[in-house]
Write a structure and sequence with these properties.
By secondary structure, this protein is an alpha+beta fold. It folds into 2 domains: 70 residues, Arc Repressor Mutant, subunit A (Orthogonal Bundle); 60 residues, Ferric-uptake regulator, C-terminal dimerisarion domain (Dna Ligase, domain 1), CATH 3.30.1490. The chain has 5 helices and 6 strands, in the order H-E-H-H-E-E-E-E-H-E-H. The strands form 2 sheets. It has a 3-stranded antiparallel beta sheet. The termini are far apart. 16% of the residues are buried. The structure holds zinc ion (2 copies). The site of one zinc ion has 6 residues, from loops.
Length: 133
């Protein structure tokens, strides 16, 4: 019973968050709530949710792994230098998924897409350094 309530609280918090959360951020939001949840419990549940495709992992640059509900996922442009993140509008793969499901008969459960590059600031810095050399 206690486990079910913890599980529900973690999922609810992820759904409520506007942005994907790391396990620590999630823990910070849940710490003062009911039921009490340990950081290890947050980790364990997140792993389970990922295995069940309820939650999606988002890895960006050097930052911590963040988690978001799989249904309402987002994609990012990530700077490989400073780890700046830009959220993409919507999901560019939604239509592709529909077509794939139709053509292959797969029941599609999710996908991940992160685009890497250098943000304008880091790109400018690099150009300057190249000119100096
Ligand atoms: Zn950058
Ligand atoms: Zn997507």
């Amino acid at each position: 019973m206690k486990h079910t309530r913890q599980r529900e609280a973690i999922l609810r918090e992820l759904e409520a968050a506007a942005e994907p959360l790391s396990a620590e951020e999630l823990f910070a939001r849940l710490r003062d709530g009911e039921p009490a949840i340990a950081l290890s419990t947050v980790y364990r549940n997140l792993e389970r949710f990922c295995a069940d495709n309820l939650v999606q992992r988002e890895t960006t640059g050097d930052g911590p792994v963040r988690y978001a509900p799989a249904r309402r996922h987002s994609h990012y442009l990530v700077c490989t230098q400073c780890a700046a993140r830009v959220k993409l509008d919507g999901c560019p793969l939604a239509q592709l998924e529909e077509g794939l499901a139709r053509d292959t008969g797969f029941s599609i459960e999710g996908h991940s897409l992160t685009i890497y590059g250098k943000c304008p600031r880091c790109a400018r810095k690099e150009t300057k350094e190249t000119q100096k050399a």
